[in-house]
Amino acid sequence: MSDRLFATDVLFFQRLLKSEGFYKGALDGIWGPLSEAASASFDAGYDALKSELGTFDRRTELHIASLSMRAQREARQFMHRALSRGVNVKIISATRTYEEQNRLFRQGRFGNAGNIVTKARGGRSNHNFGIAWDIGIFRDDGSYSTDASDYTAVAEYATGPLVWGGDWVSFPDPPHYQLATIQPKIAWVRSRFENGEAYVV
Ligand SMILES: [Zn+2]
C-alpha cells in the first residue's frame, strides 16, 4: 500500500518512514530490501490502526494512508469524534510529495490555469512531511461547505498534539489540522524530514 502511494518518489517515502523509525537504510532513493521491510512494517501499523479505530469513507481512507503513523492515529481519532457528533466531515487532502506540492504551486501562476491555492513551494508546506490534513464539511444535500463557522465548530475535536490552522494569526486556515512539531519553523522541520529525523512532539 504505502510503497504504491509513493512509488514515484522513493526518497520521499524513505524520509517519511525513517523519521518514524520504520526505515533503517540510507536515504538514497533506491528501493531495496530495507525499503521493502519498512513498507511492510508501515502497512502493518496502518492495518492495526484501522482495526483499532475504525474506517471511514473512501476518500478519507485514501488520504489517511498517506500520513505518518502518528498522524494516522490522530486523524482517525479526530474523524471519529467529529462524526459521532453528527458532523459530515471528510479528509479531502493530506500528504503531498515535493513534486506534487510544486505542481500545486504552479496552478494559477506563470500563466497556468486555475486559482492560486497555496503559497508554498515543495518542501515549504507541512503537507510535505506526512503530518497535515485538510477537512471538508458537507451539508445534508452533499454540497461542500465553505462557511467558516462550520469549520470553527469542529475545531474543538482537535485535542492532544493537534494544531488547528484556524488558530494561525497571519494566515488562518480553518480546514487545516496537523501534528505539533518540536520547533515551529518550517525550515527546521524540512531539515529533519530530509535527514530522516523525528520532528513531531
Ligand atoms: Zn492544509
Strand and helix map with partners:
Layout: H1 2-5, H2 10-19, H3 33-53, H4 58-64, H5 69-84, E1 89-93, H6 98-106, E2 132-138, E3 144-145, H7 148-154, E4 162-164, E5 176-179, H8 186-194
Antiparallel strand pairs: 1-2, 2-3, 2-5, 4-5
Helix pairs in contact: 3-5
The protein binds zinc ion.
The site of zinc ion (ZN) has 5 residues, from β2.
The general outline is globular
User: What is the radius of gyration?
Assistant: 17 Å
The succession of helices and strands, N to C, reads: HHHHHEHEEHEEH
Count of the separate structural domains: 1
The set of bound ligands, ions and cofactors reads: zinc ion
Query: How many β-strand stretches?
Result: 5
The end-to-end span amounts to: 26 Å
Secondary-structure-derived class: alpha+beta
* Number of contiguous helices: 8
Question: How much strand?
Answer: 5-15%
Query: Could you say what the CATH architecture is?
Result: 2-Layer Sandwich
Q: Unreliable stretches, pLDDT < 50, 5 or more residues?
A: none
CATH class: Alpha Beta
